[in-house]
Amino acid sequence: MEIVYLLIFLFAIREVKNLLFWEYLWQLKNYHIGRFLAHFSTSKGKKLFINPLVKIIILALTLVDFNLFYILLFIYLLESLEIIRNKFIVPQKTSKTIFLSFFILSIFIFFILFTLNVDPFSAFLLILIFDILTPAIVSLIVLLFQPITVFLRNRIIRKAIKKRKSLDNLLVIGITGSYGKSSTKEYLKTLLENDFKVVTTQRNENSEIGISRCILNEVSSDHEVFICEMGAYNRGGIKLLTKIAQPKIGVLTGINNQHLATFGSQKNIVKAKFELIDALPPEGLAVLNWENKYIRENFNKDIANIKYCGDDLWAEEITEDSFKLCSAKCFDVIKHKIKGSFNIPNLLGAIGIAKKLGMTIEEIQNRVLEIDNGLKINKKGDFDIIDSTYSSNFNGIISHLDYIKRWKGNKIIVMPCLIELGKDGKTTHYEIGRKIGEVCDLAIITTNDYKKEIIKGANYSQMKNIIFSDKVNEIYSIINSYSKSNSVILFESRVNNKLIEKYE
């Protein structure tokens, strides 16, 4: 019987970690079923099936010979030692995750107490079955509480809508798009905050609950301008956000195939992003990135009054520290400190709004010089380090690769494959591979989802130095072998923090 107690003890140690991981994964995917299921089409997602498969095989074997349960004991021992050496992956602390964790772990404690009071063979079977079904158990609990979550969410939304309606003098500027939302928000905030009382959504607060809480907790009657970043994964999502925030100005930064897997089609993405423009009042203002083909081809001029970054306002003669701000009537030279010309369309949109709100070119110029962001670039030995790990999409990667061409030494990119691209995944990664081959001396790809497409694209440009690895020390060693004066490393998308820390 003692050996069964040892088995239960080791199982309990590793299972707590397992339960919290699956809760973390649901939170990471914003409790969105489509995003959660899409994760299993990735290489990391597919690996999650290995553990249940191994346990099913062990279950089948031990039904033939119970003595084989020692295999399971050995596996749990190894997993427990691994947990002791490494940190738990746990969900971010929120009221929802605290409640879910309490409920999930309470059920698990009752399960452990129950297994302590059954015969050894039954305990063994119960442990194996619970282990195999852990993803389903956590998912079922998350989904069972979704109606309560939806009820509480809707109550918060109703409160936010009621408060927003009471703020008659508040000008709301909504910003959406597949990319460039956060940059545009920060540019606009910097341009306006000295002349207006401005409040913005915080980082990652672009969902219906995030925006509602921002309105309830941050926005007050003293504020004149509310800059609201808006994100969604399905059609109808932006429309709901416009009902909450009621924007008078809408900024559409750009459209690509980001989150195609959850939207279902490029057509749905376009329609979803234009929900912001469609919701503007008759006296509203649409601010559009006219360089983006999806915006040019789908904008209905009968809906909104004005577009920027196109026929009304555009940039010419762009350099590292200036550009010519042009309109139909005149032009002005604008000095700036923004890294990367690909950020200029976002700045143009912000400038267009500032002009519309009465700011002079002189005032705008002074504010633009206060903007000192774009790509984060640090120095580490022979390398300049560009950290673009906050978010990633096809347009951003291509723009960043174009940007690092200016370095004379080795040009290195470290990135995983992009996710949630659906049927566009192969062609998108082929094009990424071509660009990598054109620009880089070394590429390290940390996932294998589109390995063939990236290699094929890079080989088109005659590049051979592509390595697929997620091992931090191995990556660090390979990169150091490329150490050379005036070299650059581009960290793109979700790169392991332990690797980033080595270059801080």
Q: Name the shape in a single word.
A: globular
The proportion of strand residues reads 5-15%
CATH-defined topology of the largest domain: UDP-N-acetylmuramoyl-L-alanine:D-glutamate ligase
What's the CATH superfamily of the largest domain, by name?
Mur-like, catalytic domain
Q: Could you say which structural class the secondary elements and strand pairing correspond to?
A: alpha/beta
- Indicate the low-confidence ranges by residue numbers: none
- Characterize the biggest β-sheet: 6 strands, mixed
> Biggest sheet: strands side by side, in what order?
9-10-14-11-12-13
What top-tier CATH class of the largest domain fits best? Alpha Beta
- Please give the share of residues in helix: 40-55%
Q: How large is the radius of gyration?
A: 26 Å
Number of domains: 3
What is the averaged pLDDT score? 89
DSSP strand tally: 14
Distance between the first and last residues' Cα:
52 Å
Counted by DSSP, the helix tally is: 23
Q: Architecture of the largest domain, CATH level 2? A: 3-Layer(aba) Sandwich
